[in-house]
Amino acid sequence: MLPSGNGWFRRTVLLFVVVLCGTAGLYAEQRSGSIYWAPENATVTGHEVDRLLNFIFLLTVSVFVLTQAVYIFYLVKYRRRDGVKAHYFHGNTKLEIIWTAIPAAIFIGLVIYSNELWERIHRPPPPNALQVGISSYQFGWDFRYAGADGSLAMPDPEKISMENKFGLAEGDPAAADDFTSAELVIPVGRPVQILLNSRDVIHSFYVPEFRLYQDAVPGRTISWVWFETIRKGEFQLACSQLCGQGHYNMNARIRVVDEAEFEKWYREKSAKAQAAAAPPKIAENPTKTTL
Amino acid sequence: MTAATALVHETKHGEHAKASPATARFGMLIFLASEAMLFAGLIGGYIVLRISRGGEWPPAGAPDIGVTWPLSSLNLVMIVNSGVLIASSFLFHLAEGSIKKRSGSGIFWLFATLVAGTIFLVVQAWEWSHLRHEGLWFNTHGIYGSCFFVTTGFHGLHVIIGLCLILWCLLRQVSGRCYRPGHTTSLDNVGLYWHFVDVVWIVVFTSLYVI
Amino acid sequence: MSALTAESAREVPSPSVHRSGFIRTYLWTYDHKMIGLQYLWTALAFLFIGGGLALIFRYQLAWPNTVVPVVGHFLPASAAVDGVIIPQGYNMMVTMHATVMVFFVVMPMLIGAFGNYLIPLQIGAGDMAFPLLNELSYWLYVLSGFVLIGAFFAPGGAPGTGWTAYAPLSSVAAYNGTRVGQSLWGIAIFINGLSSIAGATNYITTIVNMRAPGMKMFRLPLPVWSLFITAILLVLAVPVLSAAAAMLFSDLNFGTSFFRPAGGGQPLLWQHLFWFFGHPEVYIMILPGMGLASEIISVSSRKPIFGYAAMVWAMVAIAFLGFVVWGHHMFVSGMNLTLSAAFSVSTMFIAVPSAIKTFNWLGTVWRGSIHFTTAMCFALAFVSMFVIGGLSGIFMASTPIDLFVHHTYFIVAHIHYVLFGGSIFAIFGSLYFWFPKMFGRMLSEPLGKLHFLLTFVFFNLAFFPMHNLGLAGMMRRISDPTIYEHLRQLQPLNQLATIGAIGLGFTTFVFLYNVIRSLRHGAHAPANPWHSNTLEWTVPSPPGHGNFPVTPTVYHGPYEYSVPGMEKDFLPQNEPAPAEARLHSH
Ligand code: HEA
Ligand code: HEA
Ligand code: CUA
Ligand SMILES: [Cu+2]
């Protein structure tokens, strides 16, 4: 009634490894980055996230290998044999305490490490941070820069509407020369603080290379996200919060460029925006155009 | 609750043991714990929304249902109405008492409970329509209307279910004098439910009308 | 469904069942065993619906925008055009896949089927405390199933907002375009909740009040303990989801603004309510699996559970802590950052009782005499797969890592390691283990082994690569990863996963074949094929009406295997220990 298998476990594992390696290996030459691990990091704090990630990876792999090694060893060693009776044993309190205490200690350490880093990632941004307003909607992104005066108008989520996409206060002088962009351009090495808004449903700011994810919640401005890039490059901003039928395609380009290129881009954008806004502006606020 | 009280009534073939009164009561209490969590969800949501909204409450322009001094006529109606519901709990208690002490059939008190509960429901309905006239409805004045109507709606639904149960008890008692001392299991459980609906009202009333 | 129920049950020799009509036997019955089987067959049918949806959308992920073979052209217009899945159709299928799997497969299987079948039998009772409520709970489940499936036929189609239905996407018709579908989803969840609450009330009452003489709480078999704790979680967590679903329904249909910022509502309120339910929910789906696997492992190792009390207290701890960790789903949702840190602490702590359980399973097989039955293979694999899923949970419990992996396939890998590798493996194992009791026939062991082996391989093939996909940056819930440059190179992994998934789907037919074949031609099952101690094995397979001809008396705990001094290596709970047995404890 009780058939005993032998070697099934080994065979299973073997087969699994062969299939996994084989199939993945077939495609090996097609890839540009690693397809098994995180893409190359691009921010200062991302570096520390990676360190923590590696630490937890090491920890969990050790735990896995250790427990499974013991487990499989037991399974093989204590498989049913004729005439061998199982050991009658109801447990051991000392062991229970040990294997409660050790994981608990590990977890306490891990949570201290994690939350210390969490605090550090979210400390207030330095004053020289470049502020960018990000407004998300079904299904796209608008980026807003401070413009020539260097001051970004603060969005008021309650004012967000079809006409007032950023929720800006009427006549806010800081808003006058703000310009918008369809791509996020940032200078490498300068801290960037983003002000996240949503016009409709929850979207999210997710850039794997930045090791960053943050939901944009309608009805509020989230201003604690900031980061400092360490390398130039092009990245893709992805909305990673299910937000409707166009969610799969809600992305935007991120360009991390050097300071000079950024200044150039910024000046051009700013000038173009002012030119476009100029005629009505003259009537309202003539002094502004002389800037 | 030890194994000693375990009551596997002898199971005759083809016949199911009926839960004993204590078991039935226990089950009812578990169910009511679950009901309490339902209202905890609704009222918890209300409190969270109201706190995070800040500002004046009720929102400007909305009719005020809050109990204020001196009492408005609406306040008076609702306080009296709450009294009616609480009184109905006592009436039910009297019904149980008169059956258990053999001092009567309990029919009168059950009927009285039914009447009191119905009055509560009717006044509640009147209040809804009154507020609707004043411009407060599910879809007006934001979360103020939302929380008020959904929470009182859920409570009202419970009152309706309770009334149906009481009516059922009443009919059983009228038609066959089903309840005698020692044979009051379903009556007791309906009672528990009805008292629960009462207690929930006190919490609902306090959170929606008073604070 | 009824046809299936009828057919399979016809084979069952039912010794003491008084003959009653078809309806009273199979459709409206007060017998907990038949109700358990009703749940079993219905949930199995839903497994094919949920799994079929998964296979369809997995195909789209591997080979985007190509015609889905076989079924593509039969898909409704809301899901596919010319056999090619459209983005909203993809969202719908993911949503329905998860809703079906969670509420209509795993919960009804573990709690409805095994809960109903095993609780009275293992505690020595004739039936549940409230048989009528029990049957009512089954039909509420069926009703909620119809409502949910009905959403497919609603104007605009099924909801496409994920099983988490985050507001305001779910609560504003203009944003989701599926007002009716989403409302039906809410109604289905509400009715399903009523069913769960009715069942849970019944279980708690039964376990507390109807144990056979001598069956102390600490002599309960672990499946009963796990279901008891699960039932408590259900009673306290499910109504909160019901309240949330009611608010959602009201926002959609009555114009309230619970989750609409314009009216002062809070999108995050939905998430708090949902996860207040949702996290206990995930333990609702694993605890019974843990209990069932513990039973199988102990029996098949011919050894007492290592640390029975520790197992029970660990489950109690999981249940308590389960109510204070919900925020780990919301670390990056816009919730207060310090709150995130606090939830991270509680989440790490909840892993401790899981660790205790894992080590006690290792302790149980240690120096055992392990019989590798199919049931045991599944139970053993359950432990390994749960450990993988649990360990990936540790990554996400660390706030900075969640900042990176939130809403990626890393989470999807976690979900399926704990829910498929965990719950479904436990379900399969338990089916092999208790099938003889339920139907009086043995399942074929060679076919079972084949089923296990293929499931194990294909499962890992399908879901392990998702860890890598997630780390590499692939988002959940996107219908076409090739839109993103950095994801395009990951397609090999996506194809690997899909191949695994298809294999997994076909493997299920091996199981189905085994079941159908064994119902007719399987060897007749003796009363106690596994030489088990618990009370259900002391009565014939299948047990007659009323379960126990005489109420059993219980003399000791359920895991007295290989007691020194005894000839046989097991000691049923209703047998007093012979004088020469040197029994420990209990
Ligand atoms: C059965 C279901 C189940 C179970 C048991 C678990 C168990 C755990 N889960 Fe999981 N979880 C889900 C189902 C489940 N989860 C689902 C469905 C989601 C996604 C929902 C959605 O968004 O759709 C989710 C999401 C989810 C998140 C949110 C991720 C995100 O969206 O960003 C987090 C974050 O903390 C998390 C953590 C954990 C942890 C820490 C455990 C722990 O309980 C695990 C503990 C176990 C172990 C750790 C292994 C054994 C222990 C040892 C061998 C001891 C030694 C170990 C060490 C020292 C490291 N889970
Ligand atoms: C118990 C729970 C459970 C189970 C068992 C499964 C089983 C499977 N799941 Fe599921 N899954 C979830 C719970 C579960 N899932 C949850 C909670 C989510 C999150 C959803 C969300 O984001 O909202 C999710 C999301 C999810 C995703 C992510 C989608 C996305 O984010 O875009 C994927 C992708 O691969 C996936 C795949 C699968 C596969 C291939 C299976 C396979 O195991 C299925 C194998 C198939 C069968 C066992 C049945 C066989 C049937 C047939 C062969 C019949 C064929 C018929 C037809 C084709 C009509 N699941
Ligand atoms: Cu916006 Cu997804
Ligand atoms: Cu969780």
Summarize the topology.
The complex is a heterotrimer of chains A (291), B (211) and C (586).
Chain A: H1 8-26, H2 44-77, H3 93-121, E1 130-137, E2 140-145, E3 179-181, E4 184-187, E5 191-198, E6 203-207, E7 212-216, E8 222-228, E9 233-238, E10 251-257, H4 259-284, H5 286-289
Parallel strand pairs in A: 1-5, 4-10
Antiparallel strand pairs in A: 1-2, 2-3, 5-8, 6-7, 9-10
Helix pairs in contact in A: 2-3
Chain B: H1 21-53, H2 73-100, H3 107-133, H4 142-176, H5 185-210
Chain C: H1 2-10, H2 22-27, H3 32-62, E1 80-81, E2 84-85, H4 87-123, H5 131-150, H6 173-176, H7 179-209, H8 222-253, H9 267-301, H10 308-321, H11 337-365, H12 374-397, H13 399-405, H14 409-439, H15 445-471, H16 485-488, H17 491-521
Antiparallel strand pairs in C: 1-2
Helix pairs in contact in C: 3-4, 3-5, 3-17, 4-5, 4-7, 4-8, 4-9, 4-14, 5-7, 7-8, 8-9, 8-10, 9-12, 9-14, 10-11, 11-12, 12-14, 12-15, 14-15, 15-17
The complex binds heme-A (2 copies), dinuclear copper ion and copper (II) ion (CU).
Q: DSSP strand (E) fraction of chain B?
A: under 5%
Helical proportion of chain B? over 70%
How far is the first residue's CA from the last residue's CA of chain A? 92 Å
Strand-and-helix sequence of chain A, N→C? HHHEEEEEEEEEEHH
The outline of chain A comes out as elongated
Strand content of chain A: 15-25%
Our Rg estimate of chain B from Cα atoms comes to 21 Å
State the order of secondary-structure elements of chain B, H for helix, E for strand: HHHHH
- Helices and strands of chain A: which structural class? alpha+beta
Question: Got a strand count of chain B?
Answer: 0
- Number of separate helices of chain B: 5
